[in-house]
Amino acid sequence: MFVCYTCKGTNNIIKVGAFFTICNKKRRNLFSVSPFLCNFTKNKKQKLMIDYLAQNLWTLWAVLAMVCLVLELSSGDFYITCFGIGAVCALVASLFALPFWAQVVIFAVFSVLSIYCIRPHLVHMLDAKGGQRKSNADAIIGRVGKVTETIKAGDYGRMKLDGDDWKAESDETEDLPVGTKVRIIGRESIIVKVEKA
């Protein structure tokens, strides 16, 4: 697929790459952006620059995607990533010589779709919400184990849970003898608080 440009006064067209053609004389772009913007500029160099940018819109989308990637590294909430995905989709659309307005629509549609479809999965996978995941030590709360060393009232003893030995204390008024089933109700550092199950 080639992007076609018509040359005034000549039929000379030089094809460069798989997606671009360049005329060796004055050229008129088939993009709807360039003629519109060129009407506001009087300077020939400005017209050529606008014409160049209109011919290479893919670079705009590539730069936008890279900027989104860099900004996402500092934010970590995956909203900016979604706009980067939209920019990549617009980049692909620009390679097929779609008009600029269509590229902007594709950017907007794919950005919104990725916010609603892709972002929740990324957040869930990487747990960016924070504070909702329990550590392994906190996951034992509510589990039942056995006393391995008598837990005296108001003092410490030992209990076993899944093969792990824990220092335990109880608020019970009576001692918990060896073999008693106890439920873990809290944890402070390496000491668990238990009650009779």
From TrEMBL:
Residue ranges of domain NfeD-like C-terminal in the record = 137-196
| Main localization category | membrane
GO CC annotation terms, alphabetical: plasma membrane
Q: Where does this polypeptide localize?
A: Membrane
Keyword terms: Membrane, Transmembrane, Transmembrane helix
Membrane topology term reads: Multi-pass membrane protein
Q: Which InterPro entries match?
A: Membrane_assoc_protease (IPR052165), NA-bd_OB-fold (IPR012340), NfeD-like_C (IPR002810)
Name this protein carries in UniProt: Nodulation efficiency protein D
